[in-house]
Specification:
about 60 residues, about 50% helix, mainly alpha
Length: about 60
């Protein structure tokens, strides 16, 4: 999903799927927050990480 595709209906649908009761006054701020999050993800996607191996971290407390 591209940041510009996020609108109030997107946020309402995500809240419904997640089972979250979302007051109408919270919808527009969440539109902006989700767009910003997606912009950050786009920036990460543009990074050239070919020379790096994935790091796997395991903490025994997570069992």
């Amino acid at each position: 999903m591209r940041p510009e595709d996020v609108d109030a209906n997107t946020v309402r649908m995500l809240a419904e799927v997640a089972g979250i009761k979302l007051p109408e006054e919270d919808v527009q701020p969440l539109v902006g927050a989700l767009r910003n999050h997606l912009k950050g993800m786009e920036a990460l996607d543009r990074l050239d990480l070919e020379e790096f191996d994935p790091i796997v971290t395991f903490d025994p407390r997570w069992k």
